[in-house]
Design a protein that fits this description.
Elements: H1 12-27, H2 36-64, E1 69-73, H3 83-89, H4 93-101, H5 107-112, H6 123-138, E2 142-147, E3 155-159, E4 162-166, E5 179-190, E6 193-196, E7 202-205, E8 208-220, E9 227-237, H7 243-247, H8 251-263, H9 275-301, H10 310-313, E10 314-319, H11 326-337, H12 342-352, E11 353-356, E12 367-369, H13 370-376, H14 378-398, E13 409-410, E14 413-415, H15 416-423, E15 426-429, H16 432-440, H17 444-449, E16 454-456, H18 463-469, H19 472-482, H20 503-528, E17 537-542, H21 551-567, E18 576-581, H22 589-606, E19 615-620, H23 625-634, E20 637-640, H24 652-658, E21 662-665, H25 671-678, E22 684-685, H26 690-699, H27 703-708, H28 711-721, H29 734-742, H30 748-767, H31 769-781, H32 788-800
Length: 806
């Protein structure tokens, strides 16, 4: 496949004129009266103009070459801000700065005005965004498919330390990057019944039909040589408006169908602790998956006749179980609408679909009750039963005994993980350890039956967004030291190893880090009123709040450190700033308790004159991509402390290391591979391994014994129980204390002392500045393998069977 030439260099004067034109004719504002948001929209349209031509050329070349396309289905795409990313990828930053400066407008303020696209939650969505960037950078023809959430996840704020969820309003602030595709609308059905004619043909008669409207966002790769598409679906009522009840004065009834339809694309991850919430989640997943399948099939049929050839022209990647309903929907379309036999249809599905697993937690592998699926998607329930029956026959043919884990339908539930596995051509884990554990835990029985299916594809992150864009100081230093081109070929970072012990380079490296910390300190002061010492160690844990990620262990260790500082005030304690960020799912009570505990402890410690300036605790509200872009470059220590065997991979660990942070962590997820690449001396590993965890549970773990064995932890637990951090309500955290003392499934107590001891090793290492800086440089220099470009090339070769253009 031949590549596409990069766009020609743009003069600042040309861009200036385009900004003026869009300000007048797109925004409808004059230069004299324009506000910051007006300048942002005008600049965004001017940059988008430069993306459209290579976008069209990408599509034309793909069609001319009859190239196989990749379709990446994900419930989340955490793309963050798009303007700065596009400017960087097109190499237009200097031109954009000069063009805006001609209007006396600050470029940095303009790009900061863009709201984060509220299309994701955490690592799953950010991985999908990195993959879009890399698919375009290496030149793989691809569509990303997801939902255009009106509100997204939620906006987080704290009220007296408790998380409060508020609706996100990103779309109301102007989104300049999308193109609405009215001719690509799809009608998606729910409910109803199935009839069968005399020839045995099935007909689904939905009782509810929702229109899926397509919105396309072009995603340019590095230097703008290739531009793929993110197509997001918005749910709308099939009927324009019900005038009859309106004329009767029933204004709410007139709008009811619109409201119900639009609910589907309103919020990411609605609370599924209620029957209505579960039904909405299932409808969301089917809505975007069905629309995407119909769209890609229509594209296939414009150039091909026989749908049996679909696996040779399309590779569909299911990002987690959310789009697993693709299997019965694809089979249904092929049988009911294109007259294929079930055997042929299922063979096409198995040749086209691939499934990425992201969790080893059985409860995180979605299950829907048979009754819910049958009520919501009656035809699909029939097909799921057929797929399950076929797989049972396959098991019987081997002579093996069928286990519940091998069945799609079990105990009145449809097991979506099993459905995805059985219906996929390839199933991949996202780190070496995770893939190995998949074969031994959640998919052990299925792996025995299908030993060829599971392969590993260790995650990666895009170095454009997560180094070049978010850390310009370090990027400049890298280019100055080893030359350019590393943004596309991250292995070139290994050239930094020769500078790792160079005193002058170390000084420059530390200066970049300090500048990043100063920038973060200004933001924290503005938002929280806290003054941070940029010479302190910035120790950061930012990720969604979940018990297995063990933010609880982190904050308990903070208290243990505080106690030690107060007992030994004369000791040479290195100053620390412990920073947290992340959201708890609205229905996750324990995670919300942990957030409240962190904020209560922060309130106590930050107001203690005995440790002022030496220990500060910060919880950054409303953590998102833009905040990550500020926090990660400022980190000295990266907290990756999940219970071993529970973190599938992680990508935050890669971003931190890429930006010169040293990791403290367990041998979990991609930490194992990071350790292999950076070397044992440049990472702080502690705690139980995955086999240790499994054996401890077999032996019968007693949390009380682990607490009793650690005086530091015992003291902290007593302080929390007695209300030291909650004097207004001494029993506030009794449930949390009871959970760790009696159950402790995530082994906080078991790993606490090892974590605490390793943190003291970190203290000593921090005081040796040349050695610490050497460690930090070696982390950046060793991150070449963790580029998402490498990951995508591996997917292309091992799973999708496509040839990248570059």
């Amino acid at each position: 496949m031949n590549g596409i030439d990069a766009p020609a260099r743009l003069q600042a004067s040309d861009l200036q004129e385009d900004i003026r034109r869009h300000l007048m004719f797109t925004v409808g504002e004059s230069v004299d009266n324009a506000r910051l948001s007006n300048w942002r929209i005008a600049l965004s349209h001017a940059i988008r103009d430069r993306v459209v031509e290579p976008w069209f050329r990408t599509g034309q070349q793909t069609a001319q070459n009859a190239s196989k396309r990749v379709y990446y289905l994900s419930l989340e795409f955490l793309i963050g801000r798009l303007l700065e990313d596009a400017v960087m990828n097109l190499g237009l930053e200097e031109a954009a700065r000069k063009a805006l400066a001609a209007f006396n407008v600050d470029y940095d303020l303009v790009v900061a005005d863009e709201p984060d696209a509220a299309l994701g939650n955490g690592g799953l969505g950010r991985l999908a965004a990195c993959f879009l960037d890399s698919l375009s950078t290496v030149g793989v023809p691809a569509f990303g498919y997801g939902i255009r959430y009106h509100h997204g996840l939620f906006k987080q704020r704290f009220d007296n330390g408790w998380q409060i969820e508020e609706a996100e309003d990103w779309l109301t602030q102007g989104h300049a990057w999308e193109f609405e595709r009215l001719n690509a609308s799809m009608e998606i059905g729910f409910g109803g019944h199935v009839s069968i004619d005399g020839e045995g043909r099935h007909y689904w008669h939905p009782s509810e039909i929702v229109r899926a409207r397509a919105y396309d966002t072009p995603i340019p790769g590095w230097q703008g040589k290739w531009v793929n598409t993110l197509r997001l679906w918005s749910a709308q009522s099939k009927d324009v408006f019900d005038l009859e009840p309106f004329n009767r004065g029933d204004f709410i009834g007139a709008a009811a169908s619109n409201i119900l339809a639009e609910t589907i694309s309103r919020v990411l991850y609605p609370d599924d602790t209620t029957p209505a919430g579960r039904r909405l989640r299932l409808k969301q997943e089917f809505f975007f998956t069905a629309a995407s399948l119909r769209d890609l099939i229509a594209r296939f049929l414009r150039a091909n006749d026989d749908l049996r050839d679909l696996p040779n022209k399309a590779a569909i990647q299911l990002n987690d179980t959310h789009p697993a309903i693709a299997a019965p929907e694809l089979v249904r379309i092929l049988i009911d609408e294109h007259s294929l036999s079930f055997d042929d249809a299922f063979q096409v599905a198995r040749g086209t679909l691939n499934y990425t697993n992201h969790t080893l937690l059985p409860e995180a592998l979605e299950k829907w009750s048979v009754d819910l699926v049958a009520e919501t998607l009656p035809r699909h329930m029939q097909i799921i039963e057929q797929i399950d029956a076929v797989h049972r026959q396959e098991i019987a043919a081997t002579g093996r005994t069928r286990s519940p884990a091998c069945c799609i339908i079990e105990n009145g539930n449809v097991q979506m993980g099993s459905l995805a596995f059985i219906s996929a051509n390839r199933v991949n884990g996202v780190s070496g350890l995770h893939t190995d554990l998949m074969k031994k835990t959640v998919f052990e029985d299925l792996h025995t039956l299908h030993p060829e299916k599971i392969i590993n594809q260790t995650n990666g992150v895009t170095p454009r967004r997560w180094l070049r864009g978010c850390n310009p100081g370090l990027s400049h230093l890298i280019t100055e030291s080893i030359g350019d081109g590393w943004e596309r070929d991250l292995d070139k970072l290994s050239g930094l190893k020769s500078f790792a012990k160079d005193a002058a380079f170390q000084e420059q490296f530390r200066a970049v880090k300090r500048a990043n910390k100063e920038r973060l300190a200004v933001s924290v002061k503005d938002v929280l009123g806290l003054t941070l010492n940029p010479d302190a160690m910035f120790d950061i844990q930012i990720k969604r709040i979940h018990e297995y990620k063990r933010q609880l262990m982190n904050i308990l260790e903070v208290v243990a450190l505080w106690n030690a500082m107060k007992r030994n005030p004369e000791k040479d304690w290195p100053a620390r700033v412990r920073i947290f960020g992340g959201k708890a799912a609205p229905g996750y009570a324990m995670a919300k308790q942990i957030i409240k505990l962190i904020n209560d402890i922060a309130n106590t410690i930050n107001n203690d004159p005995d440790t002022a300036g030496r220990l500060t605790v910060v919880y950054v509200p409303n953590y998102n991509v833009s905040k990550a872009e500020m926090l990660i470059p400022a980190a000295d220590l990266s907290e990756q402390i999940s219970t071993a065997g529970m973190e599938a991979s992680g990508t935050g660990n890669m971003k931190f290391a890429m930006n010169g942070a040293v990791t403290i962590g367990t041998l979990d997820g991609a930490n194992v591979e990071i350790k292999d690449h950076v070397g044992d001396d440049n990472i702080f590993i502690f705690g139980l391994t995955a086999p240790d965890v499994a054996q401890l549970r077999i032996d019968g773990y007693v949390p009380h014994d682990a607490i009793h064995a650690s005086p530091a932890l015992s003291e902290v637990i007593h302080q929390i129980s007695s209300g030291v951090f909650s004097p207004d309500d001494a029993g506030r955290f009794s449930g949390l204390v009871e959970n760790i003392s009696l159950h402790d499934w995530f082994l906080v107590a078991a790993d606490f002392q090892a974590y605490h001891d390793t943190q003291r090793t970190v203290d000593a290492a921090w005081l040796d500045k040349p050695t610490w800086t050497h460690r930090a440089i070696m982390n950046t220099a060793s991150m070449g393998w963790f580029s998402s470009d490498r990951t995508i090339r591996s997917y292309a070769h091992d799973i999708w069977r496509v040839d990248p253009a570059f």
